[in-house]
Amino acid sequence: MSATDPRSDAAATDAEVEAHVRAIEANGYTLLENAIEPELIDGLNEALARLERDLEITPADNDFEGRETVRIYNLLAHDRAFEQVPVHPAVLPIVEGVLDPGCLISSLSSIDIAPGESKQMLHADDQLYALPRPHPAIVCNTMWALTDFTEENGATRIVPGSHLRDHSPDPTADPESFETMPAEMPRGSVLIWNGSLWHGGGANRTDQRRTGIAMNYCAGFIRQQENQQLGIPTDVARGFSKRLKRLVGYGVYRSLIGHIEKRDPIELLGDVTKLRTVWDR
Questions:
Q1: For strand 199-200 and strand 157-158, is the pairing parallel, antiparallel, or unpaired?
Q2: Cystine design at 29: which of 64, 193, 220, 276 (Cβ 3.0–4.6 Å)?
Q3: Helix (H, G, I), strand (E, B) or coil at 86
Q4: What's the mean pLDDT when you consider all of the chain?
């Protein structure tokens, strides 16, 4: 799906997926405008409002998460509305092109920047992994715009091409010292980026919230940011589609990594399958 394509009812073609993957390789990011169905966006906003109220969510007390930013973590454990997010056909094929089909959900959370919030420190999402830089993509993250994202209301600020640098940003540096570009996009759009890209939330200088969903993925051999298997109750995971079960970690990467006594972890959810490991092959 091209950046100007208004369709919301069809998956991207192979050519479109390839174009977005190439853009991420070159620039560190790509943007899908109007990629998500309006009714899905409405449902996600309603679910987040309900969770914020029912769970009595309040802003964190640190500069990174934001003192005027409401974040709700582990969304798959809280409402079935979010099950459509990780597997959305306009987004997941691009993520798989950046990583591979064995990728995992690293975390699924909401980020609601309220009026008065300041700029977030610049960071790279894979910065805690002790690897030389630059390196092949091990993290691919996405931001779903549940409201319009503008420079004034806190659109994600990015440094194009920074995923190719040989170091990560200094999170203690003044955010104003970096030259960034606001990733402005209309409601229903999705920003996808390589986890090495330097970025951060923007300041909200309006009187309205900027609401987004951070749908983050990692390679199948990387430890997930949120512990999906322990964080999502087993009875909830049993109701997931088979693809979603695999994405949260009930699977084996490249026919070996993650097995349980040569058995597929998906069997813990009642699925009947037979694992053929690399040893068997």
A1: antiparallel
A2: 193
A3: coil
A4: 94
Give the SS3 label for residue 79: coil
Whether residues 281 and 215 fall in one domain: no
Tell me the average pLDDT across 196-216. Answer: 98
pLDDT band at 84 (very low <50, low <70, confident <90, very high): very high
Task: Clarify whether residues 216 and 266 are in a common domain.
Answer: no
**Confidence at residue 174, expressed as pLDDT on a 0 to 100 scale:** 82
Q: How far is CA 154 from CA 204, 208, 214, in A?
A: 5, 10, 14
DSSP string, 155-205: PPEE-TTGGGSSS---TTS-GGGS--EE--B-TT-EEEEETTS-EEPPP--
CB 38 within 8 A of CB 188: yes
Range of the domain at 280: 251-281
The count of other CB atoms within 10 Å of the CB of residue 13 is 11
The number of residues making up the chain comes to 281
**Own/partner pairs for 8-11, CB < 8 Å, 24+ apart?**
8/34, 8/35, 8/36, 8/37, 8/38, 8/90, 8/188, 9/37, 10/89, 10/90, 11/89, 11/90, 11/93
Q: Give the pLDDT band of residue 11 (cuts 50, 70, 90).
A: confident
Q: Are residues 245 and 255 in the same domain?
A: no
